[in-house]
Write a structure and sequence with these properties.
Blueprint: E1 2-3, E2 6-7, H1 8-23, H2 29-39, E3 44-47, H3 56-64, E4 70-73, H4 77-91, E5 97-99, H5 103-108, E6 113-116, H6 118-123, H7 125-133, E7 142-145, H8 150-154, H9 168-171, E8 178-182, H10 187-196, E9 205-208, E10 216-223, E11 249-252, H11 257-269, E12 278-281, H12 287-299, E13 304-307, H13 309-312, E14 322-326, H14 332-339, E15 350-357, H15 358-389
Parallel strand pairs: 3-8, 3-9, 4-6, 4-7, 5-6, 7-8, 10-15, 11-13, 11-14, 12-13, 14-15
Antiparallel strand pairs: 1-2
Helix pairs in contact: 1-3, 2-3
GO cellular component, one term: chromosome
Organism: Dendrothele bispora (strain CBS 962.96)
EC number: 5.6.2.4
């Protein structure tokens, strides 16, 4: 394709050659397709499994154009830091990344990627005034809404700003494309994102690669009650005395309180040498603690991490072998997101475990019995009506 001086073949070849030279392997065709769509100014929605490489498409345009700048709206600081590290690796010393508030770099325009939370962009008046004064957002070539499922999951009472992201368009130059990415988007969430981001499906590039993870086996197990931490022991090697004997494991809990309780319980059950190999992470821990814990977990010093959503979202750690959901998750979408953090290295046979309170099984059984009784009643009514007609 060639139009208005743009040559598709040359652009793709340049991105592919530079990427291959840097990483020793080619980019996937779908990654090049998304990158090219952004360069051409098309809005995009991409659904692809955790660890599939959704970050690459908005990095690739940077390889062929030093003036290409992107804005990445990301829900968690720990995720912003992780992605910033990837950008540094991607562009090496040539890459300038801004996250939090790098005033001087922003003012001078010496950045390629800027990472922000939605609250900073839409609600921080001082930051918006600064950006407007120096005309920074008008020079953004593309905007990325990472973990876009948060628009549906969090835009209620939790983080209302996620329901106002359509306002981002008013801050950008007309025609600036948006890329929304997620590993899990049901049809309702997909439609919600289109509506809230003002994406016209007829004019956008939509890609759904699915999110099946062939190397993850999932099983459901009963636990006696909501704080039955003993149920975790069946999935932990209690005989271990060294780090290598413990599989790298992440345990997801739904609220903050169980993180510390589960951590203490497992430390008490493991060999004293391994007490520091178990830690916990939630949104109330300091930024310094979060960085330290995630670094140790990535490097293998921590083998079992008990965490809320603060750790799970976007954590790029390829060798997590076991993922445990402690208690019924808020939704199947959340469960898919959480268990998608394990087995990113597809050579690993990973195990996803869902621990569910016994009472939930009983509740489901009662609902089934009611449904069965209703079906029987409806059949009887149907038979009676048929007999009356005869």
């Amino acid at each position: 394709m060639q139009t208005r001086g743009y040559n598709s073949t040359d652009t793709r070849n340049l991105m592919q050659a530079t990427f291959t030279q840097k990483f020793g392997k080619p980019a996937y065709d779908w990654q090049l397709n998304v990158s090219e769509a952004l360069i051409l100014g098309l809005d995009c929605i991409v659904v692809a499994g955790t660890g599939s490489g959704k970050t690459i498409p908005f990095m690739l345009p940077l390889l062929g154009d030093d003036h290409f700048r992107i804005l990445v709206i990301s829900p968690l600081k720990i995720l912003q830091q992780d992605q910033a590290s990837t950008f540094y690796l991607f562009r090496s010393s040539d890459c300038n990344v801004c996250f939090f508030f790098c005033k001087q770099d922003l003012k001078n325009g010496v950045f390629h990627a800027m990472f922000l939370g939605p609250e900073m962009l839409l609600e921080h008046e001082g930051f918006r005034d600064f950006m407007r004064e120096h005309n920074i957002l008008k020079n953004i070539a593309a905007t990325v809404i990472d973990e876009a499922h948060c628009i549906s999951q969090w835009s209620g009472d939790f983080r209302k700003t996620y329901g106002k992201l359509e306002k981002v368009r008013s801050l950008l130059s007309p025609g600036t494309p948006l890329l929304a990415t997620s590993a899990t988007l049901c049809r309702a969430s997909f439609m919600d994102i289109q509506s809230k981001l003002l994406i016209d499906a007829e004019e956008a590039f939509l890609l759904n690669l699915g999110n099946d993870r062939f190397n993850i086996s999932t099983s459901v197990h009963k636990m006696n009650h909501a704080e039955d931490y003993e149920a975790l022991l069946l999935h932990v090697n209690l005989k271990a005395s060294t780090l290598d004997e413990l599989d790298k494991t992440i345990v997801f809990v739904n609220t903050v309180r169980p993180t510390l309780k589960a951590c203490r319980y497992l430390r008490d059950k493991l060999h004293p040498n391994l007490h520091s190999a178990v830690d916990y992470l939630h949104s109330y821990r300091s930024s310094r603690d979060k960085r330290k814990i995630m670094r140790r977990f990535r490097q293998g010093g921590i083998r079992i991490l008990i965490a809320t959503e603060a750790a799970g979202m976007g954590a790029d750690i390829p060798d997590i072998k076991v993922g445990i959901q402690f208690g019924v998750p808020p939704s199947l979408t959340v469960l898919k997101q959480r268990l998608g953090r394990i087995g990113r290295n597809t050579s690993i046979c990973a195990s996803g475990v869902v621990l569910v309170e016994k009472s939930m099984f009983q509740a489901v059984k009662k609902r089934r019995n009611k449904t069965s009784s209703l079906n029987t009643f409806m059949r009887q009514c149907s038979n009676t009506a048929r007999a009356d007609l005869q």
